[in-house]
Amino acid sequence: MKFNWFIGIDVSKRTLDIHLRYLSDHVEYQKIDNTAAGIKAFLSRCKELKVDFTDALFCLEYTGIYNELLVNTLSKKRLHIWVEQGLHVKKSLGMQRGKNDKVDASRLSEYAFRFQDKCKLWEPVSSSLKQLKDLTALRNRLIKAKKLLSVPITELAENAINKQHISQISTLNRPVITQLCEQIKQVEKEISTVITNDQRLQELQQIITSVDGIGPVTAWEMIIATNQFKSITDGRKFACYAGVAPFEYQSGTSIKGKPRVSHLANKKMKQLLHLSALSATVMKGELNEYYNRKVAEGKSKMLVLNNIRNKMILRIFACVNENRKYEKTYMPSLA
Fold it and tell me: Which of 45, 68, 175, 218 shows a CA-CA span of 20 to 30 A to 135?
């Protein structure tokens, strides 16, 4: 679809900086409150400027909870919304110097104008997936809080001279950690309920966890990251997203580096896949045999583990695309 109006919006907690552009021409800059009233007033102003919403593209960076009100308001009016990663916008516009909210809004409208052919319009996720996303985020925060409280006590106990003092601190700390453990279990119970009540989420979890080494936590994160395997449908693209796809590093005859994975990745997803690969190496099966064989051949353990992560991803996507569980002795049906 071709657009004529491009509206770049820099989102912050309290305000929205907005730059309106008609094709390549600047029209107006506004700074409004990030509230329902502020957004309503801005849309009214757009009507005064005779903005045709049918060929207008609203472009904003992903800022988590801060852009939810704006996105939901625009979505209810069936407007065209493009939510892009900030780093993607920054890298695409060449060398830049300095920044502020007004400049960022202008850059977003310019980005939308220049790359409208690559636009991926935002689509609302299902209520079940939204609940799953919020609950897994809460679980991650609780686990982080537990780690912050428990790890220092353990390290102090290992090197303490005054054991009585450490025992006192540990006693004071224990009720909080116990409560956090109970809350984590409760959140996991709520997650299970959400998945049980949604047939598609339940099917996806069963398919993903049918692959050796993959547990429910990894399945949850993959479902969220791929929007139920709608936004990412190719295993290779997901491997790149998760930071497990190796890339060459060479130029001419002077630069010949080894292929390495990129640090531009979803680090949480990469960590979970690494733990899944480690789990698969100690389970009886093909991946365990593959790991032992390659290590015996002299291959680096991390290289072999990364290969296993890629194998897991490709197997998961193949099974999801065919809507079936993983079978170790699978025989494709003849056409």
Answer: 175
